[in-house]
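Raw record, unedited: Branched-chain amino acid ABC transporter permease
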Amino acid sequence: MAVSESPRKLFPGTETRKLLIKWLVALLVPLSLFTFVWIGEQIVNQVLLSFFNPQDPQYDHNLWSLLMQILFILIVYASVIALSGYLVAADSGRRSTIEVWCDVLFATVPTLILLNSTANLLISVGLGVVIWAIYLFVRNRIRQARNYAPPPPLESLHVVDEQGRAALLRVAQQAGFWFATIFAVISLIADLIFYASGSLPDLLLIWVGVRTVLLPVAGYFLGRLGGVIALRYVVAPDAGVEVSDNGRAEKGRLGWRGNAHKVSREQQLHSLSASRAKEEARDVVPNDKPLQSKGATRFYLFILMAFIILYPILDPILFGSGSKGRISSYGDLGFYIILALGLNIVVGFAGLLDLGYVAFFVIGTYAWSMVGSTQFYKLTGIFANPNLFSWFFWPMIIIAAIITALWGILLGAPTLRLRGDYLAIVTLGFGEIIPIVFTQMDQYTNGTDGIAGVYPPATPCIGSFCVNWGSSPTPYYYLILILIGACIFANVRLRDSKLGRAWIAIREDEVAASSSGINLVNTKLFAFAAGAFFAGIAGVYHAAKLGTVAPGDFNSTDSIIYLAMVVIGGLGSIPGVLVGAVVVYAINLLILSQLDTYATDPNNFLHILPQLLPNFSFENIRNLLFGVILISIMIFRPEGLIPSARRRRELHHTENEDEEVETSALDEPPGTSEFEAEVRVE
């Protein structure tokens, strides 16, 4: 492992210029497309003109909306500039410039162009992912044909001293400054062209001048921020962990035990297996793939979270009319995500095949429907004032979740001695029985007619501002975001807890887990209860949002859909489950119907399909396409789209260098701060 002795040795002048050119060009192309081809410049101009022309009705004068648009633009541009500083500082310089340019272009440009042309978020992102997958496939085949072998990950690691850290920070500052300066010049030239053509109002010339001056200054400080983030992942000469003489990290209540000694970070990396060393080395700065490192992922997640949180405000600007329908559909996607997270506990963590998960969703849905509607009067004779009973929605989220958890225990108790196919058959039967039972309970559930007029939630007014739950889908959108955040937090804590480790042990080898002292009965029952708990939360939300509930809305095939989300995303992987839920929901309920709309348009190239095949529609071949996707995933990516690190190592032994994995505290080396913070070794 090399040790940097000076800034010149780590970053010679020629290499620094190459790194700057490589990443400045790579990042300027997608940022320029976002600004001038798609929507970025339009948002900025619309916001400024709204302030400059307060009486003009053609502009949006809602102060809250304008502030959120400004916030989103600031986050996007600031994150990209800071990312440029991070990437230059984190890049080892060993990958060719052309390869880096191709990676960035194929990952970003097709999606931006599709967004501009289709005005459909999920179709654009989906096609962009397909193009990216094809690119990776072709690139890997070219590498195989050329007998390319990636360099060993540990041989290229640098132990960075104080001079090296100063060099990294200085290069990041330069990258941020020059990136922002070049972008300011490009923006200035483009705006002058717009002004000469008459498409830029005179009022915006002031903004053009101010932006041209401020961008380089902001770039310097944002580049430094990117460098500071990169420094968090360098290996310092004195970095290390303390381990006991038997090779384990041990720390008692009073500190490190007397038989402990310090091992350097590089020695610890060398002691790992090849697969683990490769995963660890990917995040150490500098490295060969900064775009896939943990530091870069932080930037991506920051932009993604900003987009998700501000989406209801951005949707009409980005995609035009029809915002209510799109926001409502993404609210429905949210409860699918919660269902997938719950089923991931049962199937992904504990390895218990559950084909009757829809039953718990039905129970949670009816739990609120029977309380938060006029049905409560039929059951109890007590008049349910809508203004009062709407407030009961909030405690019913927990109450219904607890009720479904109890039903999960009732289902789990008779199946404790069953495994594999036998367990799947029993749970499938349970999923078939519950909807039929609710259909036959006319006195309590109105039978096949279902329950109508389910009350929406109620929230207090702040001054004159009141949340409109009745006609706007936006409150439900933010409500499901909060519920998803809470469920993800609970999933992470469960996964890294003692109970979560017991679930994983049962999944890997039930006999060995029992021999190790794990109580199989309690652990399995907890898995069924936890999974059902999340289904109850999703059910309450679904009932309140939909307003009506009928047994015909649920069937056993829904359980297959939920299971497909978990399997496609990655068993036991929380990010994978999120992605799997989005993919399955988008294909099953959104993309195919949108493709049919395109096929009916004579001006669209898809219109040729109904001409060649009478009565053709994408809806009619839904199951065919979905089946082909499932088969393809199982053949070419059996571990899922974003697998957990443990499962990826089991199936592929990390032979594919371009795959993304999700790591947890259980995948960290013993003795590291991440392991100690999560597992609490004592």
